[in-house]
């Protein structure tokens, strides 16, 4: 039986109960505390999700960090505050897993990585794609496409908060102050696996159309590699029915949903389709939680998959995308 | 009953019998002569397709143009020779319909348009998409997507001649001398309807990976409009399963096959799909032939749909794409 690590979660948005479900089912974690800016919201969140009444509610991170029982912190707060919050966790000697993108920019991330090393705690990127079992199947089947000639990837979905934005309610998800927007929230899912597969691109070309709030409504990111391009489209203000694809001279791998790799098929050059995906846990965060548990219990301070180097390469691409598209965050000027 | 126009066709590739079928079924045309560089090939083509034995075979355009009975010429020769051949037809007082792209570059096209005007004959672009009945349905449904936030379009298909290219046989379709390649052959299908719908883009950005022959194997074209981008991927060396899409804040129009608009659906923002396409003639060239017949019999010298202005705007985009991607044709230096 694994030692159960005491988990604190920061944030009460829709992703947090899914992380807690994954963490508890992984067998590695026990929900210990919830950080919510308002105690009342934390209490509602705890009861609405049926968590034990001994789960502690804290109104701020500092109080939670003072609790010696907390082993690991999951940060699902707005992007802009990942950096100060993760730094506080690290300084308090807690392991920390941070929702994607880990920080507002590369400078913050490099500083965080150095801090984690100095404090000998685990710092991990919660990007889930590479840890889904179907990602291994994708890698195993990659050679079937032959020489790669083109990749396309898309994540375009109308945010449930977009109507609120149009109504003038300034929701977090379209708020420049919080380091949000389309490429940070959805485009990053398309960038991460391709940078993992093919390394840092030779060049990045980016285009976007911005909202009045200053974040991107929709955009394009092109990753140039020596012999092909990855063409990424992302949006939080319109939706697509298309899949991501790795297209080669001998066939195409079709990836339905680049964030969870729910379905994978290989289409040969005659158009014959073969389903190659395996069934996955419906809550794909399960694989992140399982990997986090394995990594901590092995005494490692860095994931062997979601490495610090990979997160840094991805944030370097995001920085360049924002430079070219004119999306600038307050965090960039600190 | 319409007057039947005597039709001469130049070329014997796979598209020509489809044009002849369309032309004859339209009721406007009668196949009169075939131009084929080798009489023997022309004879084989005539008998293989079951055309009447009184259809004349010519080894060169000049002989065919000397025949007063020919009213209209369909040019399906390699792109590089569209210009000299069309110019010869016009000078001989024949109406001429030219396969897409009409010429190697804008300079040639402008010269051809001026020549057609001076000679008072019809010059028409054989690009078929806008003339398919489903294109009108697309236009009628466009407002359903609300404010457009992003368009994507794709035409990627492995050419049946690509293995021959890899085997060193230098087929026409990958031959720089003939003004060929991916964007000229397939990408143009994605550019044409969007330039028709939204006008000349403010900016064009293009990327491509070239074959050793100097033409593009696969590429990306981005058309920038004031409030959104059209993201085009095209290839003749790999294939896609994706559709073209017009994505708006209220829903998405999904276009399956941008060249023929075989299937159109509207997906609302809740994900509800509605099929909106009508059945079309399986040979979509039928609509080109029908429109050509109507245009000639109305005494017009320019199509009201595939206008000279539209063809010029499209070739201007193609010129810019090739400038940015380094695909240069001998025709550009003449």
Automatic annotation (TrEMBL), chains A, B:
Does the keyword Magnesium feature in the UniProt annotation?
no
GO MF annotation terms: nucleotide binding; scyllo-inositol dehydrogenase (NADP+) activity
Q: What is its EC number?
A: 1.1.1.371
Query: What protein name does the entry list?
Result: Scyllo-inositol 2-dehydrogenase (NADP(+))
GFO/IDH/MocA-like oxidoreductase domain segment(s): 145-254
Domain (Gfo/Idh/MocA-like oxidoreductase N-terminal) spans 6-124
Q: Tell me the keywords, alphabetical order.
A: Oxidoreductase
Q: Which domain of life is it from?
A: Bacteria
Encoding gene per record: iolW_2
Q: What class of enzyme is it?
A: oxidoreductase
